[in-house]
Design brief:
With about 700 residues, the protein is α/β, with parallel strands linked by helices. The chain is built from 20 helices and 29 strands. The longest helix is centred in the N-terminal third of the chain and has 33 residues. The radius of gyration is 27 Å and the shape is globular. The N and C termini lie far apart (about 55 Å).
Length: about 700
């Protein structure tokens, strides 16, 4: 039996002086997501979505982070993390304790949401709540529409074992016939409708497919007596080893990735979820999976809550709309909308777009125009995640068909997007584009487009630099910053960047861009040193940064050094923060806030100095070791003074948020920011403006 500890003991274990354990900090972030499901200032249907996001986040956490720790516990059991000095096994024990409480919290949240949905007009019922007439209706529906889409088997000499697929629901039965006992297994096809509306009327009664299986699934085993039953779902390790030997030129990396993706469903189990923890079938499954009971979690309601994204369809449109966020569409600045040519606009002045408050359309239209314009000689782009129907890909294919030189660096190791990227890589290659699958064993996470134009004998450049993916869908949901510039030195850097990717060279002296893994971290730390020297000289030293996560120990230690020197540091860290602020004598000059709201905060900004003289970068990189040391990332300077002022003002508004912001306190807890004066929701204010 592995170690089992309490949630309170886990918290103490996960905090060590100025450091917070990465996994614990992520669990605190996901708790802030769940808090949004309980925040009555959010519309009811949106709160249901936050509950679903909390659960899907946790699913990925187990597949990736717990999967990685599981691997480490086997291959390097004595290794410790560099901040809290915990082995993988100790971290796993702590995670189990914290997650156990998370399951209780999410169940309580769902019960509240169900009550409110019932008042609004949608009642979600369990099988035992059905009237005899409703039960008969559901039984007929199950037999005609659900049972044909199930797969069943019994475990015996001819059917000795089953490999439970990752993230699939199974119903297990303890069966008996003629004195002989065996295990029955029912698998529900994913094509089955998740929700069934019972009867008619103005108010909807909904029963979930899982409940139908619980009530009537035994019909799939005629002639057997059912002694026990249990619904279950297995989560498997998805932490694939994607390292390859780059000297092997005989193998196509896309083929290697396809093989590795297929392995994902067969990797070791890292979590078991059951609807009845008292069922004797639980121990049978745990033994079969070779999984410790500490990673078995009971969830009597649902293993996932994705259906809450579409529950509004059972409400009248006017009611459903009133229970959602008001509709919002990203704006297009009048000067961009009126421009005859976005190429000419970009050549004359820098363009700034802040998603989702600004529409992505100008970037898409610029690429469309580049595909047609005779001045454009080459287009090069990095791709990490794409929308399902990508206009970006369409524009690149058209450009190639018109004789432009198109190079696409497409990252096949973008976790859970590997298959999509393989599909798009094939499509782009068929159109004639040059495809590059990253560089060595570094993920290419940079967000950059390089356009080279020829006007007479003059070479000119347009470069797009951003903090988020070239993805039309996420541009409406994630906050990201984008700059399009014709700056010559940045343009030359962009051309050099793609050249270095092509020849697998990381060692290059760029003029203006900071590029990981070589120059990004040292470059940012040099600016931190400048602020430290200012403070030591009695001047005001300031550092402001916004990111998704902060885990890089060298950067954390530099921030602590700056705090000790008297530099005032403001950090907006949405997710993981391994730095503990407010520790006397060490981090008392550091303030950390996290904003979780309607949009996913995704932009990264690094700013050094005061408003008037600051040096500012936007970046694809978080301050995580995986970004700074193990990926190809870009930090781009903000050169235009007007754009710099806009970004600075946006960040100050976010620092003043007292509605969605939570502050990381010296005891390791996130608490609401005190409301002094008028309430300010930064995201809501950006929508209005």
């Amino acid at each position: 039996m592995k170690e089992q500890i309490s949630a309170e003991k886990a918290k103490k274990r996960f905090m060590r002086g100025i450091y917070v354990n990465r996994e614990y900090s992520w669990l605190l972030f996901n708790k802030r997501v769940l808090d949004q499901a309980n925040d009555l200032s959010n519309p009811l249907l949106e709160r249901g979505k936050f509950l679903s996001i909390f659960c899907s986040n946790l699913d990925e956490f187990f597949m990736v982070r717990v999967g990685s720790l599981y691997n480490d516990s086997l291959t390097a059991p004595n290794a410790v993390d560099n901040k809290t000095q915990l082995t993988a096994a100790k971290q796993l024990a702590g995670i189990s304790a914290v997650v156990e409480k998370g399951y209780r919290d999410r169940a309580a949240t769902y019960i509240k949401l169900k009550k409110e949905l019932a008042k609004a007009g949608v009642r979600i019922v369990k099988a035992e709540e059905l009237t005899p007439r409703q039960s008969e209706e559901c039984r007929e529906y199950f037999i005609s529409r659900v049972l044909p889409l199930t797969s069943v088997m019994v475990l015996d000499a001819k059917h000795p074992m089953v490999s439970f697929e990752n993230m699939k629901n199974y119903m297990l039965y303890e069966l008996e016939r003629n004195g002989r006992r065996m295990i029955g297994i029912l698998f529900l096809n994913s094509s089955v409708e998740r929700m069934f509306r019972i009867g008619g009327g103005k108010k909807a009664k909904i029963i979930l497919a899982e409940e139908l299986v619980k009530a009537f699934g035994s019909l799939a085993f005629p002639g057997y007596d059912v002694k026990n039953r249990m619904m279950m779902r297995v989560t498997r390790n998805a932490d694939l080893d994607t390292r390859v030997d780059d000297s092997d030129v005989e193998h196509d990396f896309s083929v290697i990735m396809k093989e590795k993706i297929e392995m994902r469903a067969k990797l070791s189990a890292v979590r078991l979820e059951v609807d009845d923890e008292r069922s004797p079938l639980k121990d049978f499954v745990l033994k079969l999976l070779k999984l410790d009971s500490a990673f078995c979690f009971a969830e009597e309601h649902c293993f996932d809550y994705k259906f809450l994204f579409s529950i509004g369809k059972y409400l009248p449109p006017e009611t459903a709309n009133a229970l959602k966020y008001p509709p919002f569409k990203g704006a297009i600045a009048p000067d961009l909308e009126e421009a005859d040519s976005l190429i000419d606009y970009a050549l004359s002045k820098d363009m700034f777009l802040s998603y989702p408050y600004d529409s992505m359309s100008p970037v898409l239209e610029l690429l469309d125009e580049c595909a047609k314009d005779k001045r454009v000689q080459a287009i090069k782009i990095t791709i990490y995640r794409l929308a399902n129907h990508s206009r970006i890909v369409d524009a690149l294919c058209k450009a190639c068909e018109r004789g432009k030189q198109v190079t696409v660096v497409i990252e096949l190791m973008a976790r859970f997007d590997e298959e999509s990227n393989l599909h798009y890589a094939s499509k782009l290659q068929d159109a004639g584009c040059t495809i590059i699958y990253g560089m060595e064993n570094y993920k290419v996470h940079s967000k950059i487009v390089s356009v080279v134009l020829k006007e007479g004998e003059e070479i000119r450049y347009i470069t797009h630099l951003g903090t988020g993916n070239y993805n039309e869908s996420t541009s409406k949901q994630y906050t990201d910053l984008n700059i399009v510039t014709s700056d010559e030195e940045i343009g030359e850097d962009a051309v050099a960047f793609f050249h270095n990717i092509a020849i697998c060279n990381t060692d290059f002296a760029y003029k203006k861009l900071l590029v990981a893994p070589e120059t990004l971290k040292p470059g940012l730390m040099r600016y931190m040193d400048c602020e430290i020297e200012k403070a030591k000289a009695g001047k005001e030293g300031r550092i402001f940064a916004k990111m998704n996560s902060l885990t890089d120990k060298a950067i954390i230690d530099k921030l602590v050094e700056a705090s000790c020197a008297g530099v005032k540091i403001d950090l907006i860290v949405r997710g993981i923060c391994c730095l503990q602020p407010g520790v006397p004598g060490q981090t008392e000059n550091i303030r950390v806030i996290s904003i979780v709201g309607r949009f996913l905060e995704h932009s990264r900004v690094y700013c050094f100095g005061g408003e008037e003289d600051c040096v500012m970068y936007i970046s694809s990189a978080d301050l995580m070791t995986r970004n700074t040391d193990k990926r190809v990332e870009i930090a781009a300077p903000v050169l235009d003074k007007g754009i710099k002022r806009k970004i600075y003002a946006m960040m100050q508004t976010m620092l003043a948020d007292n509605v969605k912001a939570k502050r990381l306190c010296a005891d390791g807890k996130y608490r609401r920011v005190e409301t002094l004066g008028q309430a300010l929701d930064a995201q809501a204010s950006f929508i209005k403006n």
